[in-house]
Write a structure and sequence with these properties.
The strands form seven sheets. Strands 1, 15, 16, 17, 18, 21, 22, 23 and 24 form a nine-stranded mixed β-sheet that branches. Strands 4-14-12-11 form a four-stranded mixed β-sheet. It is of the alpha+beta class. The two termini are 41 Å apart.
């Protein structure tokens, strides 16, 4: 999971064994699921199909074709398009925090990385199953301990250098294993004390060898992009301090190298990000022509969502992607579809979550000797009755009806209804101020003269933050403030710039309460291990910072945090679907009881796309971090009205 302004992570599926082989142009290739994963995949697919219908027919599996030079290329599945033109997208906020995709903790930065870098494995947008991407085949041993990745022949980076097993070993055996950059990838592709041994078998083959089975590897590894060793190895040799600033937003983009369909070409802070076509991209259309079709992608950066929608209505933008169409805009956009030559589509409930959280850290900053959080407020935030009282005071349905304008769903747990492991026995939390008052009384709080006091006579008052420019979150924070005022709690609300807010949650830990959103996973809850594990790099409600060796050492985990750790590790260590489900549901129930995140809502996924965008076929499995968003087949996206080259 990663932090988001308004954006989701790709839908993930359960683990599967994959197979493919090179063949002559036009012939088909077989890709099939292994027996251990079939039940989970079919269970997931069935549940998802019940939740939302696909808008487009499944085009079937990719074909692997071989060109005259012996290079192995995936053949696109869409209609044959036209080359040329610029796709115009839009984003709001301060822009990306970094162009180093391996150090990205926010979805915008990571999403940009996913445009210019591919992964070993991707997720099929119609089946939810892992499928080879840079690889031509993936094999999981019968005991689940050895995973073998075989790269396709002839793959090249955007600078023309070959992509080999050395890049795989370097990415997973050094960058991720040794904790360079953002550490979430390590959290989601392994369990503690069992990071896989990464072995080079030959120039194209790599093995990941675990001590114990680890079922979430393939669903989660699609978020781990392959890094070019010839670019990053000199940086890594200089140490961790040199890695983080490498390819920051001030970097010279002429040195950018990637394996994705487009490569960063220009960045004007606060205005736009531009990508150019990667001439070495490794996919072709049905006529054997090298993709992508588009020459260029331009992402305009605007300060707020309102401006974003206004520019789309004015014809300056081709696509408003998921979470960019607000409830307040949906009805108006629906009326403009014909005149504006666009189509508004719904992809059902999101798997991302929006929540309120308190800083529960009880430690001192070793650099200053002072507590990260005022000890008085620490006691409130670590008081279960206090958190439950706040949760009961929120009117989630009112938020959905009045702020989201019905384009969303109230949320009480860490899994939305889109998640196939969602524990359906957990009842929705409804607004009940009387219950909140009783919980506060039970927690030692007293209300006098309209204000709430703790058992030591301290008036209850705290600072609430969220990212500036998001009108919806702004309105929800005001709702929180007004609801808690009824309990006598004074909330000092302040929107702040997104990157500054992230620095406070990840570095200075200088915050009290915050409203945030996190991307989710439909099919594999372990992708949230970086958030839920007590040593996770994004354990936001109580972030434990890594030491000089970049390792997070936890000495003060609460008993329920340890229980969640155990549940997640047990589920991840098994291919038995009953064990996985039981532990994921138990972890969700513990989180529901403890309320470290007070969930509020999830959104309905809407997109508005110009009708001149060819091959635009969004699915609820094929959703990535924006700006890639619903453009799961970005390489075959084309503009119907462009003059053919």
């Amino acid at each position: 999971m990663r932090l988001e302004l308004v954006r989701p992570l790709i839908a993930l599926s359960a683990i599967a064994l994959l197979a493919g082989c090179a063949e002559k142009p036009g012939a088909s290739v077989r890709m099939e699921a292994a027996p251990p994963s079939a039940k989970a995949v079919e269970s997931a697919k069935s549940s998802q199909d019940e939740a939302v219908k696909f808008l487009f027919d499944n085009p079937g599996p990719y074909k692997l074709v071989t060109d005259k030079d012996g290079n192995e290329l995936w053949q696109a599945r869409g209609e044959t398009g036209k080359f040329g033109g610029t796709l115009k997208l839009i984003s709001f906020g301060a822009g990306p925090k970094t162009f180093n995709a391996w150090d990205a903790s926010d979805v915008d930065s990571h999403g940009i990385g996913m445009i210019q870098n591919d992964s070993l494995v991707d997720i099929d947008p119609w089946t939810g199953r892992p499928i080879p991407k840079l690889c031509k085949s993936v094999d999981v041993s019968k005991d689940g301990k050895v995973v073998t990745f075989v790269l396709r022949k002839g793959l090249k980076w955007s600078d023309g250098k070959p992509i080999t097993a050395d890049d795989v070993v370097f990415t997973f055996g050094t960058i991720i294993k040794d904790g360079f950059g953002e550490g979430s990838n390590k959290d989601t592709i392994s369990v503690p004390e069992d990071y896989p041994l990464i072995k080079k078998v030959d120039e194209l083959t790599t093995q990941f060898v675990f001590k114990k089975p680890f079922s979430p590897l393939l669903p989660n590894i699609n978020a781990c992009m392959l890094a070019p060793k010839h670019i990053f190895e000199p940086v890594v040799k200089k140490g961790h301090d040199a890695f983080r600033p490498f390819w920051n937003v001030n970097a010279n983009l002429k040195g950018m190298v990637g394996s994705g369909p487009f490569i960063l070409s220009e960045y004007v802070p606060g205005q736009r990000v531009e990508f150019k076509r990667n001439p070495y991209y490794h996919m072709v259309d049905k006529e054997g022509r090298k993709l992508p079709y588009l020459d260029k992608i331009v992402i305009a950066i605007v300060p707020d969502q309102g401006t974003m929608v206004m520019k789309f209505e004015g014809g300056e933008v081709d696509l408003l992607d998921v979470r960019e169409v607000r409830g307040m805009d949906a009805a108006r956009l629906r009326k403009q579809e014909s005149e504006g030559n666009f189509t508004l589509r719904s992809l059902g409930p999101d798997d991302g979550t929006v929540f309120l959280m308190f800083n529960m850290a009880q430690r001192k900053n070793p650099a200053t000797g002072k507590y990260y959080v005022d000890p008085i407020k620490q006691r409130w935030f670590n008081n279960l009755n206090f958190r439950q009282a706040v949760s009961c005071a929120l009117d989630r349905q009112s938020v959905v009806n009045n702020i989201l304008k019905g384009v969303g769903y109230s949320l009480s747990t860490c899994q939305t209804s889109a998640g196939v492991y969602h524990n359906k026995s957990l009842a929705p939390i409804v607004c009940d101020l009387k219950k909140s008052e009783q919980l506060l009384k039970d927690g030692g709080f007293v209300k006098k003269d309209g204000s709430l006091y703790d058992d030591q006579g301290n008036k209850v008052e705290f600072e609430l933050l969220t990212n500036a420019g998001n009108n919806i979150r702004d309105a929800v924070c005001i709702h929180i403030k007004e609801q808690l005022k009824k309990l006598g709690i004074k909330v000092n609300y302040q929107p702040v710039e997104f990157n500054a807010m992230i620095n406070r949650t990840h570095t200075s830990l200088d915050w009290q309460a915050m409203m945030l959103g996190l991307s989710g996973s439909r099919l594999e809850p372990y992708s949230g291990a970086n958030v839920w594990k007590s040593d996770g790099r994004m354990h936001e409600f109580d972030t434990r910072l890594p030491g000089k060796d970049d390792k997070v050492v936890v000495t003060d985990a609460r008993p329920w945090e340890k229980e969640i750790d155990q549940c997640l590790d047990t589920a991840a260590g098994s291919f038995d679907e009953s064990i996985r489900r039981a532990n994921y549901e138990k972890a969700e129930a513990i989180a529901y009881e403890q309320q470290p995140f007070i969930y509020i809502y999830t959104t309905m996924l809407l997109t508005a796309a110009r009708n001149n965008i060819g091959n635009y076929k969004p699915t609820h499995y094929g959703i990535y971090y924006t700006p890639k968003g619903t453009l799961h087949n970005l390489e075959e996206i084309y503009l119907k009205d462009v003059k053919a080259k």
